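tool_call: predict_structure(chain=1)
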Amino acid sequence: MDIPFAFFGFAALSIARIGYVGFDVLPVNKAALVQKIIAQLAAELEGYAQSARSAHAEATDEQSKAENKYDTRGLEASYLARGQSRQAAETAEALEQFAALPLRDFGPGEPIDLGALVELETKAGTACYFIGPRAGGMEVAQGRREVLVITPQSPLGQQLVGKQQGEQWDMQLAGRRNACRVVSVA
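tool_result:
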């Protein structure tokens, strides 16, 4: 069913085009969402660890020994192994922070902060964001919704933290201004 609605005087959008629009409570279980984030981080961690082991093995392999002063295969493999190890360590730290993240419900008058699940409405539609300690940019499917993890340090996170449900403002991102409204905070 294609039901139009208006948003701050912008052209009508249709529910069929943008998906579910909830105005009171997000239909997302935060504990299940965080478990999905942890599972994705664990999978990433395993991938980085495996890549680091592989790059380390290549760097220390007898065939990677330099044959002349211009042969840098072993050196390049060692740089790659170090980078993969750092990425694995950062992912492990993010995993620990999400595992220790206290989950709480945010009331309608409470300001957005770490652990909040936010539904934001713009003229382009609605989007869901989870304010997490790390792993900004990670997308997690939760039912029919996509939830994007952002950090309080990100440009959008800086603008959202402290806002409350129902608050409207002109959001400044990538040099553009967009009217937006916090539909719900959970």
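agent: The domain at 18-36+104-185 is CATH 3.10.50.30 (Chitinase A; domain 3). Proceeding to next step.
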